[in-house]
UniProtKB/TrEMBL annotation:
Name listed for the protein in its UniProt record: MoaD/ThiS family protein
Organism: Ramlibacter monticola
Classification via InterPro entries: Beta-grasp_dom_sf, Mopterin_synth/thiamin_S_b, ThiS/MoaD-like
Phylogenetic placement of the source organism: Bacteria, Pseudomonadati, Pseudomonadota, Betaproteobacteria, Burkholderiales
Length: 85
């Protein structure tokens, strides 16, 4: 099944080099019913940098990320911790 995988800020460095230049997202094929954890694992994101996770704009708590299943057409978006002042 296809989903859109979006990474923000410094996490964009973990997207595959074949993504569209300047884009922070890729369309990827994942197994039917894949969990967020299963989708993220091949990209080798440091878990300390996986801070805010949204599926279709809805927050997914850390405890749910290994079991939350994705569906065809979902948008998985991840942000690192952001500091500001």
């Amino acid at each position: 099944m296809k989903i859109k995988f979006k990474l923000f800020a410094s996490l964009t460095d973990y997207l595959p080099p074949e993504r569209e230049r300047g884009s922070n997202s890729v369309d990827i094929d994942v197994p039917e019913g894949a969990s967020i954890g299963e989708v993220v694992a091949p990209f080798q994101l440091p878990m300390k940098l996986v801070h805010l996770v949204l599926v279709n704009g809805i927050y997914v708590a850390p405890a749910e990320r290994s079991t939350r299943r994705l569906a065809e057409g979902d948008v998985l978006a991840i942000w690192p911790p952001i500091a500001g002042g």
